[in-house]
Amino acid sequence: MDNIVFRSLKDVGMLLLAVVGISKLYHSQHSFIVLFLFLFGSVLFIGSMNLFLGGSIVSWVYGVKVTFLPMLMLFTGMYIARKKAIYAFARTNLIILFLLIAGWLIQYYLGIDKLISLGFVYGVNIKHYLEGVPRLNSITVSPDSYAYALLITGLIAEKVRMAEKYRLYQIFIQLLVFSFLLLSTIRSALVFWIVYQIVTFILRVRKYNHNNMLLLSGVFLLLPGIVVFGFRLMETYNLLSVNSMLVRFQSWGSYLTSPFSMNGMIGNGIGAVGAASRRTHMLGLESRDYPVDNQYFSFYEQTGWIGILYLLVLFVWMVACLNKRMTSLPATDAMKLPQTAIGLLMGVAAASFTTNVLELFPGNVSIWLVVGMALYQERGIDEIPIQGR
What we know:
Elements lengths: L3 H22 L4 H19 L8 H15 L1 H10 L3 H25 L1 H6 L9 E3 L3 E3 L7 H15 L3 H5 L1 H18 L2 H18 L5 H27 L6 H13 L6 H5 L8 H8 L12 H34 L8 H15 L11 H13 L14
Antiparallel strand pairs: 1-2
Helix pairs in contact: 1-4, 2-15, 3-14, 4-17, 5-7, 7-9, 7-17, 10-16, 15-16, 16-17
């Protein structure tokens, strides 16, 4: 619904959820929250310095709501873990997964011509990919948003009790998600899914035992067939073409800000490029209207290389915290949330080379929710710092 009031209510709701999470967790997670907010606030400050040089406040607002506000949902995820509502969250995502698939099937049945007559915009919400393969958006805004919503929702849905109890149920969800990712024809989402599966598999078999060795042997035996079948399948959908990537390489070299300039140090301001700049351009405001199609360059253009350094420290620190959390959990832990979160962040790192992953709503919100749930660490009364001590 393209209504500014309705869209703003969603953002206000997200902000309130983040504030509630911080207020409820501040006492028990004091050290983590303080350091996170310091690094996060530093990035926001650097990305806001351009406002003093005549930057657009409207672009800044859209940049914050598109990319940085979802990051605060990490605290909502921690609060979900504290309330022991992770299984309920996974069940909700399983329902959303089936809704996403049902929406895609309905649109496929209607056809692109009918969708255009209903108000969908060709080239924005829907379009053909190469040899007439349709790119549909289901119940999200764009094909990219649909693919990432399907991807992240499917990964979370694997945490339902049934999937933990029966491995075949989890495999069914994985195959379902992979199949519709192929139909979505969004290659960066497929890269994200494959990297996630590889990372979580490695983390799963990292310890030597009889079962892990049998699993590893089976994978190596099946790997040649999987690779051959995968390449043939991707060729069918023309997913191995690199032409668009070569075009992006040319545009990146032509439009990137020089790192030796003032804007190269502090950026052109939050919202100057990416999804926020596209949105402000659609509103008729002066904007570069530059999608970038690379999350690293998007952050660089907005916050400069100083902001990139703070973001790098933030991400590396979170991965270190997740690794520490993973090693502290018993081997019998069924949910394996730290492994899931590490796999998600590695998937983000891989897909970010050709897509602004952290600007794609609602997938970006779900990513930070899962990372927050994995980072939460329940403490005993004697471990909680007391103010004034």
